[in-house]
Amino acid sequence: MKTLPALFAAATCLLLASCVSPIAKRIERNPEIYNKLSERHKGLVSRGEVEEGMSKQAVFIAWGRPDRAFRGSRNGRAMEQWSYLDYDAVPGGWGGPGWGYGGWYGPHGYGYCYDSFYSYQPMVDYVPYERATVEFANSKVTAWKR
After folding, report:
1. pLDDT, tens digit (0-9, with 9 covering 90-100), for 22-61
2. Which neighbouring-strand residues pair with 111?
3. Most buried in the list 8, 14, 45, 125, measured by CB within 10 Å?
4. Whole-number CA gyration radius for the chain
5. What parts of the chain have a pLDDT lower than 70?
6. How many Cα atoms are found within 13 Å in the side-chain-facing hemisphere of 81?
7. What does each C-alpha distance from 5 to 8, 14, 38, 57, 78 come to in angstroms?
8. pLDDT at 98
9. Half-sphere exposure (CA, 13 Å, Cβ side) for 21?
10. DSSP characters for the chain?
11. Cα separation, 38 vs 30, whole angstroms
């Protein structure tokens, strides 16, 4: 019976070790970048916050790798924009009472079949939206929104 508490303690340690925040993991993997930041930026980064004047590396540690990155110009100056996406669950479905169809892909191609019991399938679609953006000029944050 002594093994049960030990097993529970080991499982708890593994669970807690896996709960390290993504920011803490990025700091741990990039100590040379984090250590070069000012004390103010270190505090902001560790809380996942961004401000104007912050470096691209600091934004990377605070918010992670962007989902999209764009380069362009504004007022004759080269700029870069990072975009972070998230997803909204949107309930939906298709079909209706008394009708439906199913499809399959077999050796003879794609086919349909009518099935009165296959009339409605509740679904959830995940629709992307822009959660945050950051703009840079000369590798420094010039604007951000979240």
Report:
1. 999 999 999 999 999 999 999 999 999 999 999 999 999 9
2. 104
3. 45
4. 25
5. 1-18, 93-122
6. 12
7. 5, 14, 45, 44, 60
8. 47
9. 11
10. -THHHHHHHHHHHHHHHTT--HHHHHHHH-HHHHHHS-HHHHHHHHTT---TT-BHHHHHHHH-S-SEEEEEEETTEEEEEEEEEEEEEEEEEEEBTTB-EEEEEETTEEEEEE-TT--EEEEEEEEEEEEEEEEEETTEEEEEE-
11. 15
Nearest to 129 by CA among 89, 85, 98: 85
Assigned token pair, 131: 């959660």
Question: What pLDDT shows up at residue 6?
Answer: 59
The token pair that represents 143 in the structure block: 């604007």
